[in-house]
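[09:14] KT: can someone run the structure on this one? pasting the chain below
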Amino acid sequence: MSAASTTPRAAVSARQLAWRRRRETLRRGWAEFRQHRAGLVGLGILVVFVVVALAAPLLASSTDISVTRAPGGVLEHPSSTYWLGTDDSGRPVLSLLIWGARISLLVGLTATVISMVIGTLVGLMSGYFEGWGGALLFRVTEWFLVIPFLPLAIVLATVLGRSLFNIILVIGITSWPATALLIRSQTLSIKERPYLERARVLGAGRSHQIGRHILPNVMPMVFANTTLTVAIAILTETTLSFLGLGDPTRVSWGTMLDQAYSVGAITTGSWWFFMPPGICVILVVLSFTLIGQALEDVVNPRLKARR
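[09:31] RB: done, structure tokens below
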């Protein structure tokens, strides 16, 4: 009776201890992250864009981005009425920027989640399992690394068609190999550590070793790599949309650049049409890059020793 009653308490206390350690690790990580001024600047820029994207219905009317209900004239200069002027359909460029932030961030984040899931699973499996299975996954990863990323994405986007889902899918399934290679190298290193050998001796199965020992140790590298992959995904979405492979029914910064190029905004001097979306892309990519570099220093202390 007493042994049965103490077992759940011991399990609860062990669980609480594990959560306490995780919270303490996150607290230390945040304290180290705050020491990186560039990382904080990148986080601040990203927060601004995320707030703008979430508050788009409050900041700009959805009717302003409709071609048939555009309120302004064609390519009007910036004024007190239209702070960033209008496009070739009479839509306010500022409204297009605000609503375009939603699509660009959505594509970048969703495609990155797909890329991280595929890359992490392939990296874990190819690094942990020996024999033909792991070798086959490693060869597939190498094959994807050899093929140029952008031409492959262009071909897939052309074949699948112009839609938001297809763009997300194309970016997700073409940007995972670098993550898989990173996770594989980490898995090979962790697999040789004493605590994993001790777990094998005590009878831990493969799923237990991967889920309880290897995956938690590679997750910091996954999170650090995620921020850099988001930047690549946003740039890829912008490139594909600029090439006319984006979703024509959705407003994104890439489709704005494509439309500005199509109507000759550069040659006519309509800088307010093509410069704002380009600057927004640069700022968001820069923010993710700064955050990623700061997270790399946090999760990899050896980088700090080299610097």
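[09:33] KT: thanks! Residues 206-242 form the longest helix (37 residues).
[09:34] RB: yep, looked fine to me
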